[in-house]
Amino acid sequence: MKKILVTGALGQIGSELVSKLRELYGSSNVIGSDIRKEGDVVEQGPFEIIDVTDEKRLYEVAKEYKVDTVMHLAALLSATAEKNPKLAWDINMGGLVNALEVARELDLQFFTPSSIGAFGPTTPKDGTPQDTLQRPTTMYGVNKVSGELLCDYYCQRFGVDTRGVRYPGLISYVAPPGGGTTDYAVEIYYEAIKNKAYTSYIGEGTYMDMMYMPDALNAIVQLMEADPSKLEHRNAFNISAISAAPEDFAKAIRKHIPEFELSYDVDPVRQKIADSWPNSIDSSAAAKEWGFKAEYDLDKMTKEMLEKISEKSN
Ligand code: NAD
Ligand code: AKB
């Protein structure tokens, strides 16, 4: 039986990942942690306050609960990181190296997500290969590429069982997104239900990779349980389900809400970040090495997002 410590567990991914892991491995075997304390993750199983920049605290909690796995989610996302780049470096890189050190010292399996943000304007934009040019132009991207390399280093140098994916923009209805460039793709559904209209801060024709949260969570479980001898890449597997621009979301929403209106008021900061990211990445290495396959396309996800948000707002 696994015993897992999750950092940043109250965020968009952690809020759903912890529940899923508790269903799979038992509530008492999944320890949520964050710098704040609220909601279901705290109430439904063990929870500890951990600031990931405090390596001693991270070590003590991991040792106290005798965990065998760390899933390290605590980070600042792209738009927030661009507002405060030094803080992003301290949390994203400082937190990651601390978590890797704890994994090395206690011999733990390790997962952390990279992002499509690890690519930059000189990366091939369409069918972005698994192994390609990575010269990102954001602090978030610099952190993500450095993090990918650091995880590879801890695996090769110290034998830590590090694994990871490059997530696209994640779409979900449980917890709100935490300050990313792709957040519009969540907001558009809430606004569709509330106002039958949305003003997008990302411009028309801007394609980015996206994925519905259930596929993102299945990918973590599948990768962590994969036979290590089959993994050539280990960290930073490209995975994607959907490549879409704002007007594609609008079209999918209009199948359920015909009067839905989309307008634009482009935010130059987030637009610049989006323009530096791929249009669509190639997930074939993940499919080949550990069987990644997304279940949700844009239409299937849209139907479920609108249903779930309607239920929540009633
Ligand atoms: P989020 O912003 O929703 O949540 C991050 C959590 O980290 C928050 O609950 C926050 O309180 C916590 N946190 C912040 N500073 C902390 C600190 N010093 N110590 C401990 N906790 C701290 O983020 P998310 O969307 O859940 O993302 C989790 C990971 O997945 C990040 O590494 C992110 O880069 C990556 N990722 C997310 C997406 C996405 O679309 N959500 C896409 C690609 C990659
Ligand atoms: C962001 O937009 O910052 C995240 C990501 C794709 O990493 N959603």
TrEMBL record:
Name of one Pfam family that matches: Epimerase
GO annotation (BP), single: L-threonine catabolic process
GO MF terms held by the record: L-threonine 3-dehydrogenase activity
Family matches, as Gene3D superfamilies: NAD(P)-binding Rossmann-like Domain
Coiled coil spans: none
Recorded superkingdom: Bacteria
Recorded family membership: Belongs to the NAD(P)-dependent epimerase/dehydratase family.
Name of the molecule in the record: L-threonine 3-dehydrogenase
